[in-house]
Amino acid sequence: FAGNQENDIISNTYPKAWSTAFIAFGSNMGNKVENIQKALDYLNASENVEIRKVSSLFESEPMYFEDQDVFMNGCVEIVTKLTPHELLKLCKDIEYKELGRIKHFDNCPRVVDLDIIMFYDKDGSQVILNTKDLIIPHPKLLERSFVLEPLCELLPPDITHPLTTEPLTDHLNQIYDQGNEADVLWKIIPLQPRSSNFRALKFMNVKMTDEILRSKVITKSPALLMGILNVTPDSFSDGNKQYLNLQKQIETVKIMCSDALRLQDKIIIDVGGCSTRPNSSQVSEMEELERTIPVIKSIRTCKDLPQENIIISIDTYRAKVAQEAIIAGADIVNDISGGTFDSDMFGVIASHPNVAYVLSHTRGNISSMIDLNKYEQPNSNVKEYMNGEKISGRSAILLRSIAHELSERYAQAIGEGIRRWQLILDPGLGFAKNGKQNLEIIRQLDLLKNYACILESGEFVNFKNIPILVGPSRKAFIGKITKDDDPKDRDFATASVISSCIGFGADIVRVHNVVDCSKTIKIANTLYRDA
Ligand SMILES: Nc1nc2ncc(COP(=O)(O)O)nc2c(=O)[nH]1
Ligand SMILES: Nc1nc2ncc(COP(=O)(O)O)nc2c(=O)[nH]1
Fold it and tell me: What is this model's ipTM?
């Protein structure tokens, strides 16, 4: 490639004769996510454009003209046969002809804005253009965190700006070092709108320099509570006998909500119809549907539940159950298998861009995973980064191996059409991990948040800004330490593990005992986050 090795971003999976371009998108009118989704669909529908990757979605304060609604921003990486000016025309046609944008004045509110940020022509070299109607790289790129943050999710950390020749990540850090509140972004996971109100999970990571001026990314947003609603007779911890009695289930949900919402502003209710305890017997798909779908429907239709504070998650590895649960009103699909138990799962998630998906790490299947806990560092063809720095040596092998295997699943998910903005990561405590490994993973959660790698396929995967869910509640590794054989005796110890998980960076914690863990989460958020 004409570009030097460090700037080699064209992985060998891209068509050779096509150029690569990065387009920033923004919307601050109407249904912003829907406008963005439509603009991306129009881009992808063009025969001369193929979408490769879409960044996270970020909510950002308006710049320049401040008296307008907050923006939803992000970046998309495309390959294209178009020239820069042909691509500019396509973007304008999408904004004005397809989505009906009207420009009253500069920086005014807009249905959608598509700006070409950077362009690499077919031999991989960076295009520099300075014409009346099109300047590349975008002239305001270096002052906009709402462009640089999503762009840096898509590009290896050593990619430089063609004019300053400085890494783009350094330019982004320079913006944050100025310490302007308006530059800090909320990372948004959009959820299915209900009664036309926009719903989303929101997270905030910021770069800070600690007491000895070491810089690192820390999580500022409060961790969220995910309460377990096991609709199974054999769930190993609560052995819920009344599992099919809808009235009883709703009573349980009412108690979960009042216990959680005393201290939290929302609760995620994780409905599980099929225990995933290692070696547990797996019920049929029909049985799982009969257990879970009626519960989700009755939660969603129950008038005396605080619907605006409830988010529903379905704990399933079956695509059909996920599909039916989404139709019944589930907002999140929580799949402990990372899409490995049912090859149709990713397709179901990709067809619902407003549904979040928990991409979990495991190995093997329910009965074999218990023996698959030998981890080696990724092979040398995989280039790994931590906080933007290349990783070498044999440190943090367990975490890097899990992160690398999750990266492979991430690339597969994106390749099947799932959007990055839908994803939540879970290292899968107890799934193909022993007790000691679970503890090591908890201690290194912030490494997982800041992990990136270039896979052998050439795909660049970056976990920055993707929230992390952990599920330690009542698990055997806790009972082993406190010598509590009965899972129900492990709640007090679970609470201290939950607090540590939040201290190490967890964004969502999955718990059985809502009343006690809600207090733990409140204390931990007050201690470790802006809560
Ligand atoms: N937060 C935010 N503020 C903004 N202010 C102005 C413009 C106008 O951008 P242009 O110069 O590319 O038209 N776009 C945004 C935006 O996308 N997000
Ligand atoms: N995302 C996620 N989901 C899960 N579902 C079930 C279990 C098994 O525990 P349970 O039988 O107590 O629900 N653990 C997890 C977990 O660790 N993460």
Answer: 0.91
